[in-house]
Specification:
By secondary structure, this protein is mostly helical. The protein has 10 helices and 5 strands; from the N terminus they run H-H-E-H-E-E-H-E-E-H-H-H-H-H-H. It has one domain. The strands form 2 sheets. The protein has a 3-stranded antiparallel sheet with strand order 1-5-4. It has a two-stranded antiparallel ribbon with strand order 2-3.
């Protein structure tokens, strides 16, 4: 039986230091962060949280770090390579895979059973931790609804074609536009209101009334009526 390079990497113990596969590092780190924060994840939530972490990194001027190639699949952003990583981690005994009997679709839950360090770099781990803290308590359905509202998914759906590659940079451009709009509104609010003289209208009306007779005569003369 042949095994993938990902499985070989795990089985040779490299997973406990710094695995080369970025998606494997990200999935393992997510499971560790989720366990530390008291959350149990299923396959769908793993995909959605990793996508949101990549999106957060890009929005804030960084780069996507999960190693996933995000496409619009049946339930939102997904990379089938996640199955390969999941199988490798299960085969190594690092995670446990069970099927949720309460789920109508038989959702697959994944749980870290080995005490391993999260192999992501600190900056990426900070982003991932923030996303889990903010969204870890959401259900898979709630996360699905959330990711469908993100700029890359909105664009993909407008094109109406599943399987299309998601452009995460759209999220950065949307955030930049929103920031520019807010700065413009702030500048308008800071401008001093135009000064006005409450009595200028009355003075103008009085002046026009005083000159009305002179203007009438000038008009009549011009028309040859005088």
């Amino acid at each position: 039986m042949t095994i993938s390079s990902c499985e070989a990497e795990v089985m040779h113990g490299m997973i406990f230091s710094q695995p080369e596969d970025p998606l494997l590092r990200s999935v393992l780190s997510l499971l560790r962060v989720a366990r530390d924060q008291g959350y149990t994840l299923d396959r769908t939530k793993i995909a959605k949280l990793l996508y949101l972490a990549d999106l957060s990194a890009v929005e804030n001027g960084g780069v996507a770090f999960s190693g996933a190639t995000w496409r619009w699949e049946n339930h939102g952003p997904f990379d089938p390579a996640q199955y390969r990583v999941e199988d490798a981690l299960v085969a190594s005994g690092i995670i446990e895979r069970t099927q949720d009997p309460q789920s109508p679709c038989g959702e697959v839950r994944l749980r870290l059973v080995e005490d391993v360090d999260a192999p992501l770099e600190p900056a990426s781990l900070t982003v991932l931790g923030g996303v889990v803290a903010e969204h870890g308590d959401r259900s898979a359905a709630q996360l699905r609804d959330l990711v469908y509202e993100t700029a890359p998914m909105v664009q993909a759906r407008s094109e109406g074609e599943r399987g299309v590659l998601l452009d995460l940079n759209r999220a950065r451009r949307r955030k930049q536009y929103a920031a520019l709009k807010e700065r413009y509104k702030a500048r308008l609010a800071d401008r001093a209101p135009a000064e006005s003289d409450p009595g200028v209208g009355d003075d103008l009306l009085a002046e026009m009334a005083e000159s009305a007779e002179a203007r009438r005569r000038a008009t009549a003369k011009a028309l040859g009526e005088e």
